[in-house]
Amino acid sequence: MPHSQLIHDLLDGELDSVGEATLFGRMANDSELRSEFMQQLAIRTAIQQDRATLVPPISLTSAVFAGLGFSAPFAGAVGASAVSQSSGIVSTWLAKIGVPIMAALAAAGITYTIMQQQGSAQPSAVQPTAYEEAETPSPMATSSKSGSVPADAKSREYKTVERIVERIVERPSSVNVQLAEENDQLRSELAALRSKGQSDREDAVVEDRPVSVAPVEFTSNIQIARSPDNRVIRAMGIQPISPSFSVPNFSLSMRGLNGQAAPLSVPAQSAWYQNVGVGLSYRLSPSTSVGLEVGAESFPMVFQGTRNQQVVQFELQPLATWAGVSYRHVFSEIGSSGFAPFAQALVGGSEFGPLGRASAGIIYSPAGPLQFMVGFEGAALAFSHQNTWYTSTKIGLTYGVLVRL
Amino acid sequence: MKHEFTEYTDTELFALLRTEYREKAFGELYSRLSPNVFAYCMRVLGSRDAAYDIFQEVFMRLYQLSDRMDHLENVRGYTLAICRNLCLNEKKRLASQNVEFDDALYNPGVSRESERNEMLRLITMAMELLPHDMREVFVLREYDGLSYNEISALLNIKLDTAKVRVFRARQRIKEILQPYLNEL
Which residue from A234, A307, A333 is spatially nearest to B38, judged by alpha carbons? Predict the structure, then answer.
């Protein structure tokens, strides 16, 4: 058997012990044979490196699975993404800058819509009504429906509260029932006055005009004053039972994720919706809330596996879509600045494995439904390959907008 | 039902292609077979575009095969046979079109390191200079890791013939690279 054949058999692992002894004996005395062995070994090593790189790209795997109506598996993500390589400046811009901006714009749009809706339902106190346009005495200085009337009220122009009462009656409560009865009574009195020829006061009667009712609780003791001649009535004020508006319990959040990790030689898989998290949280108390959040971002993965009886190290950065349950605690506001520190933790999973996130930063809460947050965040993704678990971690900034619904 | 699809044999996975688990079974088969098929297509064909087309076609046909067959003993061998036949047809077609060597074929994009590896470039160029029968057995042996028995069965040649072809291919590549190897 020629020496070269012995070398090939040895490198193939098919040379028996006798052949090995023969070959190594000859190599010990033959420099050319040693040189040939080294050359063949170099060729084998280079081929093994080449073989490790020959993995179908994600775009090709996706095409195969799409052609069969399947979704691409994790294995198909191994290797570089031809798509990401050819993505160009547009997708790069979208991935790094465009998406967070679009997220912020989307949040602003949602906020504007909500504010518009709320604006159409502002309380009557915001929109001056006819009775407010007239100078009214303080409710504290007035009496109830059956009480006395301040003296200066006698000389002023009085207007009815007919329409206001009518709108409040729309609220189905015992209070409103009572108000409806009073309203009927007032209508009767007004009709009686008109029938008696008191037309000189007709021009003081306010025409029907809609009055918006805000989501507030109204008291039953509407302050009503009567003129001394008992012909014209006047509303003196409405006191809310609830001192404040109801606090919204749900918040919608949209934030950018800028986590970084050690760079890999392979490019990261990208998509237009990456590096963004969208969440819906429920407020348990003024300082704590829980919620659900989903997002997508690429995670660097370095792991080892065996392929064709060889140990191969893989590097890839697939795009992971994740979802999880979050818990946020907002600490006391710093003075009255509107800034408050917060801490948040999320536990969830992705298509690759379980995921955890922890973040801390500052929330700014100006007047209105919007809140802005910025902070640091760390994320860890666990994944397995060939029954071995690995982790991928990232750390970086997070920033976003919260909208109280 | 086993917990992981990785626990199934190729034959069992092929049978599962006819069941509701077809997607996962196909995914597992793909993860096992795609490196071999891809390496064969890339190294035997002279065009990356052609290699990508053939690669897709191989797995389409493998899946469609499950409609007609519920049992396949040697899934890997059968898949490579499909791949080989398609590649042969493609090479004939490409030969008639006189397609030039596609340098990008050897830069699949997985590792930038390989692009800088002069040794690797020389080997892949040397493979281009091999006759088709030598290059094929070389790829099957070195890249796909097939045994000589598997190669002989796949190519329908004698075992000794397979061994001789592989040996000659290796020697031929070494001869082509000799000037470079002498400098090592």
Answer: A307
Say yes or no: A80 contacts chain B, CB-CB below 8 A.
yes
Query: pLDDT 10s digit of each residue in chain A, 405 long?
Result: 677 788 888 888 888 888 888 888 888 888 888 888 888 888 888 888 888 778 888 888 888 888 888 876 654 344 333 333 333 444 444 445 555 566 666 666 665 665 565 555 444 433 433 333 334 334 343 333 434 444 444 444 444 444 444 444 444 556 667 777 777 887 888 788 777 665 455 444 444 444 444 444 444 444 444 545 544 444 444 444 444 445 568 889 999 888 888 777 666 777 788 889 999 999 888 889 999 999 998 888 888 777 656 666 777 788 889 999 999 999 988 877 889 999 999 999 998 899 999 999 999 888 778 889 999 999 999 988 878 888 999 999 999 999 888
**Contact state of B142 with A47 under an 8 Å Cβ cutoff:** yes
In whole angstroms, what is the distance from residue A344 CA to residue A324 CA? 12
For residue B116, give the amino acid letter.
Answer: R
Closest partner CB to A8 (pick from B60, B120, B170): B170
Q: Is A388 on the interface with B (CB under 8 A)?
A: no
- State the Cα–Cα distance between residues B61 and B139, nearest whole angstrom: 22
Contact of A11 with A44, CB cutoff 8 Å: yes
The conformation of residue A98, written as its DSSP 8-state character, comes to: I
DSSP states along chain B? --S-GGGS-HHHHHHHTTSTTHHHHHHHHHHHHHHHHHHHHHHHSS-HHHHHHHHHHHHHHHHHHHHH-S--S-HHHHHHHHHHHHHHHHHHHHHHHTPPP-GGGG--SS-HHHHT-HHHHHHHHHHHTS-HHHHHHHIIIIIS---HHHHHHHHT--HHHHHHHHHHHHHHHHHHHHHHHTT-
Q: What is the dihedral of CA A106, A108, A114, A118, to 10 degrees?
A: -170
What residues contact A145, with CB distance under 8 A and at least 6 apart?
A182, A222, A224, A226
Q: Find tokens 């469609």 and name the residue.
A: B64
CA distances B77 to B10, B67, B83, Å, are 11, 18, 10
Residue where the block lists tokens 């729309």? A170
Confidence check on the interface: ipTM exceeds 0.90, yes or no: no
pTM over 0.90: no
Name, in order, each residue with C-beta under 8 angstroms of A341's C-beta and a sequence gap of 6 or more.
Answer: A330, A331, A334, A360, A361, A362, A363
Rounded Cα gap, residues A402 and A404, in angstroms: 7
Distance from CA of B89 to the nearest CA of A (A): 20
Chain B residue with minimal CA distance to A35?
Answer: B182
CB contact (8 A) between residue A60 and residue B173:
no
Q: Which residue has the tokens 């191994």?
A: A78
